[in-house]
Amino acid sequence: MRLENKTAIVTGAAQGMGGTITETMAREGADLVLVARSPGPIEELAEKIRGTGRRALAVAADTTEDDQVENMVAKAKEFFDGRIDILVNAMGATGPIETPVWEIDSKDFLDLLRKNVIGAFLPSKYVIPAMIEKNYGKIVTIGGCSGMRGYRYRAGYSSSKWAIRGLTRTSAIDCGEYNINVNAIMPGIVETPRMEKLCHEKAKTKGTTFEEEYAEYVAEMPLKRVTTPQDIANAVIFLASDESQNLTGQEIVIDGGWAA
Length: 260
What we know:
By secondary structure, the chain is of the alpha/beta class. The chain contains eight helices and seven strands, in the order βαβαβαβαβαβαααβ. It has helices at residues 17-27, 39-50, 66-79, 106-134, 155-175, 193-206, 210-219, 229-240; strands spanning 7-11, 31-36, 56-60, 86-89, 137-142, 180-187, 251-254.
């Protein structure tokens, strides 16, 4: 087990990719603090993880709020006896779909930046001191390959994912001397309820069908297959383990070749 006896916080731990990431980390031996805005889903998943013999604590918190994140990290430190080895920032939002930049409401744009950028910044900010104290840490943030290229009609989402790259690279420089690795995973379209929503919204706006929008995404991928949550979870395990000990400040793109 590549994460045996490691302690980890996962934000966005129960929805979409987050649930698969969390369960995979538990199978690889990690004890976990699960974080989400709503307590129900993460408590249910925490109970499932406890059934496998791993320790798990569910903490409801909004990762865009300083006091809630600070309190969440304090609870994690207490649960883990002061040691936090891994942070996975998997919380995120989609924002306006099929909307040209001049039609995006400024409040929606700012709200999306807050959820996707501040939502990754604050957990990192409050976890890093605990990692510095132990001279060890792994931070993995889920970005998006729309942060690798332009994304038509998704200016807010794309901007937030480009920002994740800057946060990741600069944090890696700041934290390197403390033996903390900071990296990002940039997924393309992933087979989750969020992808279904995206295809339905695009179809509604364009007057097409769900199947046509789905096929259009697949056609843009050289591998002709949609990324799965497990594909992302596998990369998280690599970056959270000591197999990636000399890799930091980098983005791993997992998109079937969409951004190639």
